[in-house]
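Would you mind writing out a protein's amino acid sequence and the numbers that encode its backbone to help me picture the idea?
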Amino acid sequence: MEGALSAVFGPALNPFYFLGGIAYFLLWVLVASGFYVYFFFDTGVVLGYQSLEDLTRKQPYLGGVLRSLHHYAADGMVLAMTLHLLREFFMDRYRNFRWFSWVTGVPLLWLVYASGIGGYWQVWDRLAQFIAIGTAEWFDYFPIFGEPLVRNFLEDGGVSDRFFSLLAFAHIGIPLLLMVFLWVHTQRITRAVAAPPAPVALGILLALVALSLIKPILSHAAADLGAVPNNLKFDWFYLAVYPLLYIWSPGAVWALTGGFTLLLFLLPWLPPRMHQEPIVEVHLDNCNGCGNCVADCPYAALSLEPRTDGRRFVHEAVLRPDLCASCGVCVGSCPYAMPFRSVGELVSGVDLPDVPVRALRATTDKAVAALAGEVRVMVFGCDHAPKIVKAPGVAYVGLRCIGMLPPSFIDYALRGSAVDGVFIIGCADCRYRRGDQWLKQRLAGERDPRLRGRVSRERVHHCSVTDIPGGRVTAHREFAEFREHLRRLPRRRVGSETGSATPRG
């Protein structure tokens, strides 16, 4: 599905990359449309149904459309949240340092569900009557009420206007609580995506408006407690559990929903566990407190604190181990990750103990030394992106995240005549959220550390794709085009440091 959407919209506008932001956007659509509908809504057993009928019939192209938009945006939010949950699960993005976001997301599901059910009740038509009876029977399983709740919905006069005032209060209050949980849900994520790109948001809004015009939402007949509701137009996004109440017992439905909720809570700690790489280490001898690593960390695992080692710098980077994703994005942002350093051991201010910068330099040197052929390309690629097949003219160095690559390594690879060009492969949907984006900005000179101006940009190409069939085709096509581009360029001179060249042949 993701590949098909990338083929149609491109990676930059693939809706699957913005499912969380889409859910946020649909929440704002719900709030805006709900305000208008509520302005004309009269709370009560009879008044509630009649006021919605008047809004729908007397304002078909404003009130009716906004009522339908409110309904479809609610369904869309459930769909976006479900896809978001499934995608994070299948990509194993819920364990270790991500457990907090996963666990705080579980209550959001129930809050959205409860708010939607409350909205259906307020219409007080035959569908609302069915939901009320089902909910009452469901909660009557627990002997916590003086008399069964279901009796209130079996005869006229059992439901009062005060009850509907309480429902209206809950329908407004629950979304406020939902926003609080959304804020908590994104606390451990820096620069959380709270909105999709404008073209995606506009496309979704236009689709919902078109659906509202083509298939408007209408009420069933008014609720009649003296009759059994039937022939209902069902909303499976919110009401899928209710038919189970008539197939199983309420206790079985509680066991299903409660067990599923508990499973979601426990998933981050259930085997098989994802292998956790060693977390980064801070080396104060090589830290000047610049704050680049703090600004770039996708999960706020680093912070700037007052200096503790007595050196002349004001701040130092401090790591919070439980938030570290071991992605190495902070390594790529450190000005001390400079492969040209020849005095002392090459150690970065922040470094990964299993793949330190000095090891990355050694791997790069070994790969470059093995290059041969007319066109020689140094490839730096993310381990989660498509791989370029090794060949006599291709050297490949894999990185945990492409954001781990310090721009100075591109300059370093091009320092002599052994390499004609550097090809970089990052993930359009970065596993660590920001690595590919930060590298792109470093190459463009928009983010520190920047790629030096002396580096010939025509000898550097950055490819941003995903490791799916369509992404692999794109990566190999762009690589072939880049090699052909290098073939047409003049040959670089021996000892070239700046990209100067002599004509080929």
Notes: DSSP finds 17 helices and ten strands in the chain. The chain has two domains: 14-269, 281-502.
